[in-house]
Amino acid sequence: MKKTLLAAAIMTLASGSAFAATMTVKYEHKLLDGRTDRPKLELSHRMDNGLQLGFENAWQIERSETERERKAGYQPDQYEMTFKTDYQHRWGDRREWQLGTVLDFQLKEEAKNLRYGVYAGYRYTRDLQSKVRVRVSENIARMKDNSSCSEVSGDGVRGGCDSDTYNKELRVDHWLTYQWSDFTFVWDFIYLNKLVDEDVSVFDNNKSSAIENEFSAEYRLPNARAHSFYGKYKIKQELKKSSHKSENNGGYDWFGKRDNAIEVGYKYRF
């Protein structure tokens, strides 16, 4: 099944008139002991009419010890595939304005999610630009049956529903991008909010909203412009659920600490 989906995605990208295409190989590493690593592969294909098609494969690798996994009931390593579509319109004397829509279909081991939203951007100068995207993520099964969630942890701390079945959330990104010589620097300010009525539907910080920040730097080879390398530092939420306490997760001391991560990657433009 996975091989069939991957082949279909590649065939889709190979068709049509390409304006720009990018392949990105990424590796995300969460810094706390016992958390996860996520290798990723992404392909995107922008056509000359503004339509972009793409997909991303991600594999989640648990770094906790096997005996602790059995005790705490960790999920096995997960695989995700996300099909991405994006339509962009640019205008202005310098084509400095952009407006677009996004529609993604995400396949996880136990869930299927739909992500949809809009974005707008403006290039202030040749080197400085900003972009804001508003996106909603919703589980397809819940869209059909309107199922609810009513879990509360035994110690009175809101534990949230871990299953993606109960997920419906808003994500707002504001990217500020600055280019200097062969370097590109990006600051991504992220606001997250749960769009459900249940009090127990919370993020890792045990709240219905969260703020995160990501900082990245990309270096494009001056004599081989198709190739570039980047690094990203992700400032994530504090882990405040009862499941993050050492007595509930097999001995890992996560509670109250930020789930920060680093990501490195390689991009090839063709």
TrEMBL record:
<feature type="signal peptide">
    <location>
        <begin position="1"/>
        <end position="20"/>
    </location>
</feature>
<keyword id="KW-0732">Signal</keyword>
<dbReference type="InterPro" id="IPR009331">
    <property type="entry name" value="Oligogalacturonate-sp_porin"/>
</dbReference>
<protein>
    <recommendedName>
        <fullName>Porin</fullName>
    </recommendedName>
</protein>
<dbReference type="GO" id="GO:0015772">
    <property type="term" value="P:oligosaccharide transport"/>
</dbReference>
<dbReference type="GO" id="GO:0009279">
    <property type="term" value="C:cell outer membrane"/>
</dbReference>
<dbReference type="GO" id="GO:0015288">
    <property type="term" value="F:porin activity"/>
</dbReference>
<dbReference type="Pfam" id="PF06178">
    <property type="entry name" value="KdgM"/>
</dbReference>
<dbReference type="InterPro" id="IPR053713">
    <property type="entry name" value="Bact_OM_Channel_sf"/>
</dbReference>
<keyword id="KW-0614">Plasmid</keyword>
